[in-house]
């Protein structure tokens, strides 16, 4: 509830200042309750554009689709008026579809007003997976690419992900995690020289608000 309320405040501020707001959210299982709370927040959702920080390369008919989660839990009630820009297009691979995705994303106002990151038990965030084939590029803060394909042993299907520099530029950056196991992973990531992908966020983010619940 606290995170939903904080995000809603940032969206209202952006709408008041710029007439519109852009938010990029994570998928997975953690944001379910957040999405339900956020969709009940009173604000001018018709001025909000929602996108994802990363996506599994599956259509939204697939249970694993992050877009499906957003459509079914966030883009409801007042938030049904928001625009949604998904990261998946009908193509066999992210490499084949990425040109179309980049064209779609060109219309998105940057920097994003709000980015909400999650974290997996392996320390991945967005689709920055340990052992990812393009992890170095994705975490390179001088990379100018908006999105990259990603494959990794622990990722399941191929992925598409915004790069770290795009996410770090957000006006408000949140990390949303749940459970003791993830708290321990975060503690490890806070150690000097941690190689966990989430450690790059902790090191390089100009500002980061961490929300944790048991
Ligand atoms: O695969 C993904 O996993 C992470 C973490 O998900 P969770 O189920 O452990 O909450 C998520 O942040 C990311 O967006 C998603 O694609």
TrEMBL record:
Keyword Hydrolase: yes
UniProt keyword Amino-acid biosynthesis, yes or no: no
Residue ranges annotated for the Glucosamine/galactosamine-6-phosphate isomerase domain, each copy included: 2-204
PANTHER family referenced in this protein's UniProt entry, alphabetically: 6-PHOSPHOGLUCONOLACTONASE
Its job: Hydrolysis of 6-phosphogluconolactone to 6-phosphogluconate.
Homology family: Belongs to the glucosamine/galactosamine-6-phosphate isomerase family. 6-phosphogluconolactonase subfamily.
Full protein name: 6-phosphogluconolactonase
Organism: Dyella jejuensis
